[in-house]
Amino acid sequence: MYTKVRTFMEENEMIRPGDRVLAGVSGGGDSMAMLSVLMQYVEEQNFLLEVVHVHHGIRGTEADGDQALVQEFCGEHGICCHVYHYDVPELAREAKMGHEEMGRIVRRRAFEDAAKSVDDGRRVRIALAHNQNDLAETMLHNMARGTGIRGLGGIRPVNGNCIRPVLCLKRSEIDHYLEENRIPYVTDSSNLEDSYTRNRIRHHLLPLIEEEINREAVSHMAEMSGLLCQAEDYLTKCGKELLSQCEREQGEYLLTEEFFRKEPILQSYAVLEALGSFPAGRKDIGAIHVRQILNLREKQTGKKVSLPGGICARKEYSGIRICMEEREMENLSEKEWALPVPGVLHCPLGDFSTEIFSYFGQKISEKKYTKWMDYDKMKKNLSVRTRRSGDSLVISSEGSRKKITRCMIDDKIPASQRERIPLLVCGTDVLWIAGGRISEKYKITPETERVLEVRYQGGYQDE
Known about the structure:
The protein is an alpha+beta fold.
């Protein structure tokens, strides 16, 4: 078995001479077998081997026994052992998350602290004891919850600075190795319960597949995982190449019509790469968010979706723009778009169309997004923009004014939307809060000779 693991480590270039390897050892059979193999391999590769053990504060005296076994074993073999204690139940309660998720967080923190404990310039590798059964369980779990190629690929042998030396072994091979070499280990009682989904897969689903379908199912799933990881890497590469062809300015991406001529799967991978480039990375980003962005292509100009991490995507006349929410607001507040009369304006705030006709006392349109105004009173060119400091609206025939912000409050427009509402302006005069009130100064009267009709589509009001 040692030869098999050594070959696997070398094929995946896991450890180089001079590396500092931090082995995560819980005291369970998998991690103790991995530690034993690394202890043999260190004699060939001449790297620095240390152990990291995390006490989660969950299983009381049983967890104390795990720690004692690991420390005693390391002491007997002269291996530095870093032990970290965390009250996972309390931390999980404070953070309002599950024990499993908090457990992953504290383990990551422990490895980071151990890595920082010595700054000797060595490359740090974190060795984790996942095996082929863990990989198969992960694949089945992800498949049941819904996943793509990345999730079906399961667990990788090398992922960043994390290495998995025994990922080439089935659990039965590890059990045989432990017995043959009389390596001490403990059994985590929580692994025997069916309260966790992964345990149910381990105890019931996977054994049934091996017994009723194929006894080598675990090995075959491991082989398939390798192929899927290759496919994922290739598609990611193609997605990056497609994204590199897109316009980018100040951290924003513009997906033009040329982008949508590519294969749909490459579009999805390119969007994932774009989302991953923002500060929050791909945390909480899923396939549904990619679909929301791509579906904007068929939406009206001005339509927008908000995504995790403060990212947003907006349909523009020239394509779909992906940017940070605050950057979008900054851009909108700075810009102003000239409105042709008659004509059509396509802008990030929506679509505006205008017509001029003679007035003979026709019934005035009362539609929310279509307004009539006295064109002869407009002495300057028209434009569309969002609100600015000092903006106000004439609200009476006597000329009294009300601040635009007050008008929006009175109309019960949520504060989060006020910076996005389009305003039709003539010079510094606000004519219309799109979807809301128009200025009394420009309303139709019996003396009106020419009417300006403005129609608004898209944007934020009708989302």
